[in-house]
């Protein structure tokens, strides 16, 4: 039924016009892409078609997603150059090319006041309007008069409804409700690297993803080639966040875990697991020095003259000059592999100098021919042998002499002994590489050839990365910038970072400023207060977040984890709006799955090869990081703590698990609760 409110009716008409224009834009892009389009040559045609395809995907309209979510009225009295009204959406919408836009992209400069303007700084805006929707139809609007201070101070119901909405399916974008402190981070310049410390649910992941979308829009030219990459903690997390960027029109951002990225780059697969003590040594930044030394230790001392026959003559380069040539190359700071490729030409240059001294006048072709000659090639091969990263790391981990030579003065006896594999595999091909090995292989590969850099890296849950993993990522941002996101209180790896400045130094971004987010959008007050009891034990320097949710949350602790208590807990919650997560220690997973199956509860197991669909998500504690569920049931906290290598890590894991709840948390325990919970 059309609205009787004239404002709502006018806005609904604009909504329909915008939607029709969006569909038309989609059709035009589709027609261009229909296969008949060609450019000058095959490569240009492929490029053009790709660009059109991207545009078409970007224009794909989801009927549930309205083309705009807000409006700004620029007014002269608020300091604007002229009066104008703009609607803001996830992308620009124009009826015909050259027309005034019906909707502007939220990332455009003109949209900035929507997120930042305040009565004290209206930024030219007289009126800010937020829209409420139900099933894609406009149902409400809220106006803020930025020229009237009292009005703007009021809380926004539309914002609150968005924060409090039940969660279903994967993570959604937050373009309509980005907060001023978040927007400052989202719209920071491309050259600016950021490090964001934030308690659970303060929107770090959301900020990181929106920053990626913003940068791709605002710095499209610089990022077109270099690209943007997102690193997340595990595959469940990546699939949870995987829809956000495409919904914002960005389909080309690569998303990896640190392991999947390095596996892809190095062409190896993780098949082994290190004992923690070994992983700790492999994760240590000193390994970078050991590896660099192991690579350069391959250079040999010249012991004989280089003799190059040409025609009836023989040209001789004495050993001291060969040594000088090698040293010159080393001094230039060129990577080992790149320098190796340059060596034959350098040696040939020495030969040419002899020829010239004898009165010849050889040209470039002669130099190239000498460089290709057998004596020069043999000499170069012998003095500067080829190095393969896998063989090199394999040798370091299996050959005591190689390791000792490279690690002398860097690692101690116990560390050397721990690194050497007890019963080494017969060949490098049967080596079962571990996750920590990947970072070693990457360091070796980078010592040979410079790793290409991305334009920008978003690194989520960064507190869990080791120094060597951070260095691997730093290489991929050597000519770009980074957004490092994390929470020191949620660090659960033995090699996790203890401080952001240290992590930033490993990342080779030491100048980066650390900012903190403290407004919690996920966890209700009662739940965050309970979880924050752990903070003095796990991260005393951090303040707990304050919840911006209006509801206090539905929170209970029951001293029973019996089958009936659990099933009652599930049955009471399963029909409530949103998702339900059941989190337990990893080793309890089979027992839980059995119990749910027997009780005919429809569930899926996170991390399973084929998780399927289900009304309940059964979540091993080790995969809970970064996720959220409306209702969370945590089974036996003591067991979750115990599953980790030490108590500190165990309590941090428990902190992660307790802070996944959006609306309600039920804690079931048979055993005493960890003392730190009070
Ligand atoms: N400005 C906002 N408006 C509405 N919802 C928001 C806003 N900021 C964050 N949220 C929501 O709050 C929830 C938590 O955000 P997010 O997962 O990004 O937090 P996080 O800091 O990464 O948490 P964790 O440390 O637990 O992984 C998400 O559902 C997100 O959509």
TrEMBL record:
Organism of origin: Naumannella halotolerans
Residue span(s) of domain UvrD-like helicase ATP-binding: 177-524
Binding residues for ATP: 198-205
A single GO molecular function term of this UniProt record: DNA binding
GO CC annotations on file: cytosol
Protein name per Swiss-Prot or TrEMBL: DNA helicase IV
Coiled-coil blocks: none
UniProt keyword annotations, A-Z: ATP-binding, Helicase, Hydrolase, Nucleotide-binding
InterPro entries, sorted: DNA_helicase_UvrD/REP (IPR000212), P-loop_NTPase (IPR027417), UvrD-like_ATP-bd (IPR014016)
A Gene Ontology biological process term: recombinational repair
Keyword set includes Hydrolase: yes
